[in-house]
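Milestone M4 deliverable, item 7.
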Amino acid sequence: MPTNENSPPTVPAWRKLYPFASHYLTVQGHRYHYLDEGRGPVVLMVHGNPTWSFYFRDLVLALRDRYRVIVPDHIGHGLSDKPGLGEYSFRLAQRCNDLRALIEHLDLRDVTLVGHDWGGAIGMGTAVDVPERFGRFVLMNTAAFRSDHVPWKINLARVPLLGRMAVQGLNLFVRAATRLTMVHRERMTPVVRAGYLAPYDSWRHRLAVIQFVLDIPVTPSHPTYATLEKIERGLPQFASSPVCFIWGMQDWCFDERFLGRFLEFLPNAEVHRLEDAGHYVVEDAHERIVPILEEFLAR
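Output delivered:
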């Protein structure tokens, strides 16, 4: 049958899992997408690589009736603009500047940060720059300090030419992440997987994914090493702040060593170890994470 030109466009099935209004802020000449759901005390959720705000959808739905939940997509990710190499720096320092711009644009105060993966480094880096804006911290399978431990699966993506072809060309990093980051893989249904894959449908749209991998600073000569060192030096100032760690213990990337290192800086934090959850801890265990967040936020 011929297509009716007046028919509304077909809505992808994953969109039903992500029933949120889009907002945008222009940073560095690019549209920076974010969610702004609900009213009340501010909860700022910051995703990592190669996820996007879709990762936090169940937490947003659970909290937006009592809290104002802000969730940005990093430039090059999710529904944000996807600039080319010469149009954006793709460095950790710029990511922190972007987040700070959003916080100041919305005049967010007494922020509770929820950070996962690179979102922990970006969120804590921003908190180090503007500590007066932050009140509490929830960190999940992340790092915000220097480390020379890079899993071989990640290092493969850093191999010149091979890594770019695999990650940016064949989209193997995003595809592998939907299969290798969870214990309860049955939760990664075709619809959920489609949601994770949706923003990364072309070579250009996958540029930020490989650039995040290449921005891992292992040696002092790396441009981001000094940025991460600065964040690390700033962590102890939050030792008396309310901090909650929620950790998927089956994570082969940010394993228990990273949690232990965090506790050296933030020894008074409460810790929730989820023994049967992996790196995508929210996908594996959002039903258990929501009550932990609710209790932490209510205190």
